[in-house]
Amino acid sequence: MADLVKLFNGDLICGRNHRLRHYNRLETNLVTTSLSTFLANLRSKPARTSYFCHSTRNDVIVGFVGEYQRRKQKGEAFDALLIICGRKGKYTVSTEITEMLEGLDTPVISVEMSTHEAMHLLHNFTPKLNHDDRSRVEKAISHYEPQIDFDELIRRTNACDSSFNDPGSIKYEELVRM
C-alpha cells in the first residue's frame, strides 16, 4: 500500500499501520454503482479488494465506514482499501468526511486526480522490492536461496581472496555451464 500512496502522490487518511499490506491489482473495483450494490460487492469480494471512488460519492465513503464498523463489532477482519479520487482544486474530500475516516484502522487514500488517471496508473504499475516489505523480501529469499551457494559467492567476491582473480581457478565459461 505504501507503493500506492507514493504512486498516486496521495494522502493516507487512515490505516497507517497497514502501509505494508499488499493488494492484488486484479482485485480492484471502480465504484460507479448504487450504495446498496457497492455494499453487496464489498461483502462478497475478497477481503483485500481495493475500491476507487470519486470524492463526491459521500454515500460510498460513509457506506465503507459503516461496513468497517459493522465488521469490527462482529470481530471480523476488514482489509479493504478505499482510494478517493478528485481533481486538485476542483473536487476534494470534505472536512466532515475526513474527520469521520481518521479513526479507522483500515487504509483510505485521498488522491488528487481523476479515477480514470488513478486506475490507469495502477494498471501500468509494477511494485518494487524494498527492504521494509518483509513479506516480499522473504518470498525473494525463499525463491533464490536454494539456488545460490552464498558462502561460495561471498568467498569468490571477497576483495582479499577473490578466486576470480586467481588464474588457477575455475573459468567463467565452466561456471556458466554448471
Describe this structure in words.
This protein has 178 residues and is α/β, with parallel strands linked by helices. The chain folds into two domains: 2-123, HprK N-terminal domain-like (Udp-n-acetylmuramoylalanyl-d-glutamate--2,6- Diaminopimelate Ligase, Chain: A, domain 1), CATH 3.40.1390; 134-177, no CATH class. It is built from eight helices and five strands; from the N terminus they run αββαβαβαβαααα. It has helices at 2-8, 35-44, 58-74, 95-101, 115-123, 134-144, 150-157, 172-177; strands at residues 11-14, 28-30, 50-54, 81-85, 108-111. The protein has a five-stranded mixed β-sheet with strand order 1-5-4-3-2, with helices on both faces. Helix 2 (35-44) links the parallel strand 2 and strand 3 (50-54). The two termini are 40 Å apart.
Report the CATH C-level class of the largest domain: Alpha Beta
Number of strands: 5
Q: Classify the beta-strand content into a percent band.
A: 5-15%
- Number of discrete domains: 2
Please report the distance between the alpha carbons of the first and last residues: 40 Å
Q: Helix and strand string, N-terminal first?
A: HEEHEHEHEHHHH
Q: Identify low-pLDDT runs.
A: none
Give the CA-based shape: elongated
Q: Mean pLDDT, nearest integer?
A: 84
Question: Looking at this structure, what is the CATH superfamily of the largest domain?
Answer: HprK N-terminal domain-like
Strand order of the biggest β-sheet = 1-5-4-3-2
CATH architecture of the largest domain: 3-Layer(aba) Sandwich
- Based on CA atoms alone, the radius of gyration comes out at 23 Å
Helicity range: 40-55%
